[in-house]
Write a structure and sequence with these properties.
Helices cover about 45% and strands about 20% of the residues. The chain is built from 10 helices and 12 strands. A 6-stranded parallel β-sheet has the order 6-11-10-9-8-7. The mean pLDDT is about 95.
């Protein structure tokens, strides 16, 4: 994901985080003389894939533009316990006031990237792309989807506005798969149209209707292999297939080897564990 298009989102997310934490002012920091300066190091306490540098830097830019942020790593770097990630120099009050907001972003996004690195390693060599979903922390979708890409997985649609995903309830409301796909192409020509199917009959209808991507929902690995062969024959390989539903770490490789193009996994963003980080004052 290219963050140059999302600078406003980064600024807004950081502003909300600072307002939430600092509010009307850090009263504990007022115990420290205003003129006091400090030097701090932020270290990782465990293995991690780093993600979130832009958010951390923005925290200190908003808290105090005079704070110097010196990164020793970059997003995508793999770090180990006790490794220095970045250093801070500036007002002691500012360093302490910005610490929690900055580390919250870095530990959460690095947690997402680290989990994605693990999932990506499970399907290495199969050619399948692991996709995230919209199951993200409210207000942090861009941030988490960025972390997914840093960790070696891929983004599905960002929201409800950039691609169609026609599911069971949409099909019922529209009348049929064919009607839903036709209307989608009419409403937003050029936008990707994906259809979720649960049976081979629905798969054939989605192919004939001109879907760009078809999601095979809760197909067994054996049935998925049949669906892959059928789709390739019917569409000459022009339609992409995505596997979804009930796929775990234990079965992921099996599904990846069926020949599908994508596997979507909500766990990439909703089941991540924050990385353990620490800030140490060194002067």
């Amino acid at each position: 994901m290219d963050l140059t298009q999302h600078q406003t989102d980064i600024r807004n997310a950081v502003t909300r985080a600072i307002e939430e934490d600092i509010g009307t002012g850090d009263i504990t920091a007022q115990l420290i003389p205003a003129e006091q300066k400090s030097h701090a190091r932020i270290i990782s306490r465990e293995h991690a894939v780093i993600a979130g540098q832009a958010w951390v830097t923005e925290v200190f830019r908003q808290v105090d533009p005079e704070v110097e942020v010196d990164w020793k790593v970059k997003d995508g770097d793999v770090v180990e316990a006790d490794q220095v990630l970045f250093e801070l120099k500036g007002s002691s009050r500012s360093l302490l006031s910005g610490e929690r907001c900055a580390l919250n972003f870095l530990q959460s996004l690095s947690g997402t990237a680290t989990l994605c690195e693990h999932y990506a390693s499970l399907v290495e060599g199969t050619g399948v792309k692991l996709l995230d979903t919209r199951k993200t922390i409210p207000g942090l979708r861009i941030a988490q989807k960025y972390a997914v890409s840093v960790g070696g997985c891929f983004n599905h649609r960002i929201g409800l506005y950039d691609a169609f995903l026609i599911k069971e309830n949409h099909i019922m409301a529209a009348g049929s798969i064919s009607d839903a796909v036709r209307q989608a192409h009419e409403i937003a020509p050029g936008k990707p149209v994906e259809v979720e199917v649960e049976t081979m009959a629905q798969l054939e209808e989605a192919i004939n209707a001109g879907a760009d991507i078809i999601m095979l929902d809760n197909f067994s690995p054996a049935d998925m292999k049949v669906a892959v062969a059928f789709t390739r024959e019917k569409s000459a390989g022009n339609i992409k297939l995505e596997a979804s539903g009930g796929i775990t770490k234990d079965t992921l490789r099996q599904y990846a080897e069926t020949g599908v193009d994508y596997i979507s996994i909500g766990a990439l963003t909703k089941d991540c564990k924050a990385i353990d980080l620490s800030m140490r004052m060194v002067g």
